[in-house]
Design brief:
Shape: globular
Radius of gyration: 17 Å
Number of helices: 8
Distance between the termini: 39 Å
Largest sheet: 7 strands, parallel
Order of helices and strands: EHEHEHEHEHEHHHE
Mean pLDDT: 95
Length: 250
Amino acid sequence: MKIALVTGGSRGLGKSMSLHLAAKGNDVILTYNSKQAEAEEVVAQIEKSGRKAIALALDLSDHKTFVVFAEKVKNALAEKWQRSDFDYLVNNAGIGINAPFMETTEEQFDRLMNIHFKGTFFLTQKLLPIMKDGGRIVNISSGLARFSFPGYAAYAAMKGGIEVLTRYLAKELGPRNIAVNVIAPGAIETDFGGGMVRDNPEINQMIAAQTALGRVGLPDDIGGAVAALLSEDNRWINGQRVEVSGGIFL
């Protein structure tokens, strides 16, 4: 039995990842920022399926809380699983800010940096002492790190940083036999970025027309990919960027 920690697991892609991981026989620790009720509902769904789960609060932009959060994870592992470590870390939590380059404020830039890049960097650092040797890390990037859409310069730059960080983590954690990969979703129908892809028919159709498989992505497309990447069959994949986009902008 493996234990996966999924940040931002209360909704959207993180919820799908958590449910797919549980369906494959993993127990789940999921984090939420403000939506505790939604997080507890995901926990209930997982436990109904016969797996164990717990939800912990985490503000990824508040880096000073990471040491305390790691201690909470350690306590939860001891109480619920009688273990001192966990197996998989999925750095999923994030926000979307769409602003033209010339209109992007320093406040917007810093918020994206603190959550997407600095948050992922230092949360991983603080959790590694309680991660099992031979475990796995999956970071989340974006198709926008490969192709360019106006309005996402800051967001995509952070995701580009995550892709480089992934390779360095794979190299440095090799002695602990921890594999590190990055998944890059394409456009997905969620409430991310105000639900633009899901709720705007014109944008939805435009993206579908540019995608080889002829539709926009769904949360389960990403949740299933993350769970598959963390399966034992994929243990030899390391330091790789895997785009999960249905073939957009080929």
